[in-house]
From TrEMBL:
PANTHER family according to UniProt: GLUCOSE-6-PHOSPHATE 1-DEHYDROGENASE, GLUCOSE-6-PHOSPHATE 1-DEHYDROGENASE G6PD
Residue span(s) of domain Glucose-6-phosphate dehydrogenase C-terminal: 184-475
SUPFAM superfamilies the record matches: Glyceraldehyde-3-phosphate dehydrogenase-like, C-terminal domain (SSF55347), NAD(P)-binding Rossmann-fold domains (SSF51735)
Pathway: Carbohydrate degradation; pentose phosphate pathway; D-ribulose 5-phosphate from D-glucose 6-phosphate (oxidative stage): step 1/3
Pfam family, one: G6PD_C
Domain Glucose-6-phosphate dehydrogenase NAD-binding: 9-182
Purpose: Catalyzes the oxidation of glucose 6-phosphate to 6-phosphogluconolactone.
Gene Ontology CC terms: cytosol
Region listing for Disordered, in residue ranges: 446-467
EC class: oxidoreductase
GO biological process, one term: pentose-phosphate shunt, oxidative branch
Protein name, UniProt field: Glucose-6-phosphate 1-dehydrogenase
Amino acid sequence: IPVDPFDLVIFGGTGDLARRKILPGLFRRFCAGQMPPEAQIIGAARSELDDEGYRDFVRDAIHEFAGPLSEDDAQIDEFLERVGYVAIDAKGEGGWEELKSRVRDDLVHAFYFSVAPALFGDIAERLHLHGLAGDESRIVVEKPFGKDLDSAKALNATLAKHFHEQQIYRIDHYLGKETVQNLMAVRFGNVLFEPLWNAQYVDHIQITVAETVGVGGRGSYYDASGAMRDMVQNHLMQLLCLIAMEPPAKFDPDAVRDEKLKVIRALEPVEPHHIVRGQYDKSANSQGYRQDVENPRSFTESFLALKLHISNWRWAGTPFYLRTGKKLKARTSEIVVVFKDAPHSIFGADAGRHRNVLAIRLQPNEGMTLDVTIKEPGPGGMRLIDVPLDMTFADALGPEAEQATEAYERLIMDVIRGNQTLFMRGDEVEAAWAWTDPIIAGWTARSDVPKPYDQGGSGPEDSMMLMHRDGRRWRELK
Ligand code: NAD
């Protein structure tokens, strides 16, 4: 369904994020017929380019990152007719009047702040000063949203000077993933799961976001941040909220975000022995973390595992185990719900121990599997095995699912539609930092040294121990 005609201004339109995600994503939505012919996209950044120069930049970005659609030159040309550029100085006056002359009245206006957060205030202020933004305008802001509670509050206050909360779209692209929304559909659209979704039936929940890459070119940013700030405070926290929240009364932005906020506020402080931090070691043919960030005395974690408890009626006593890390053996993001054993095995000890496990995979191969216990086929007597009911979207739903809308493009279309459900509200972000800050302060005060771990493995041994101590184990990374 096409969205309403819009003007989208991308501040930082020549940056890495615009090139890899935003522009190719917009092109894919255009090809899908979701973008009306009157839509206009304006890149606004520091480089001295004209419209033609920027169109070349966008064409290259599409060729490189838009997948199979990028071979359709006619479509690209048609898309580029909607693209323009204004050279702008976020901190000065250059370019703003030109931008004002390009942005049309009486349309949806969205301003994407794809720039360093230090510029958010300058841009917000100038949008107002030059009469570019009205009560109906929307702004989109990127992570990192602060580096602690104080900076997040300051950023919220800066934006609040010029925009209402209903106009601010804080992106966490994990929320734009197909599976994440499907998680809500599965939980709240079936009678099967919700009655079992609590401490009485769930033994524990694991959330893993594993990467095979290292810090890449982001060394100095990453070293000042670490896995807690870069991944856990935002992405893993959002996944935790969706898996643990109470059913909202309706699928409405504030109803959903109210429930997520309650989860964050119910998190217990984390015990120091429930925290494992690691740093990838050097290997025969690859540098270690400290070389990658060029800081031989770095104590920043590139791996983090945590055991958490949520103090509420539903989850009292059920642990949540979170882990994320770089240079691990697989690129995997998944949420695993491990149900308790059947209360009594009528098949005796020989039948082995069997459990229902629901694995919700965000990557690779978005989908879900539910392990159910059945009889091993054949004449071997009553032996039990676990088989997965596989709901890999590409298999179940055909090629359409394979080209599932990428997170960014779905979220941008939601901005144009004015739907904030999949965006973080200011109080959620602050609550997440309020939980994160004392944990970081704790390990800093203890002078905790991250454990080295082998590249291409599953993280430090202590992370295995965190589970083994409880008689549990991580699902294998694959
Ligand atoms: P980048 O450094 O590649 O691009 C920065 C952009 O900002 C450029 O277009 C530059 O011209 C513009 N810019 C800088 N100073 C300016 C000024 N004074 N006036 C006008 N324009 C100015 O950065 P990026 O990687 O695209 O990241 C942009 C934002 O998105 C950052 O907040 C980053 O943290 C966030 N982010 C990036 C990624 C990613 O994959 N690159 C992922 C998540 C979040």
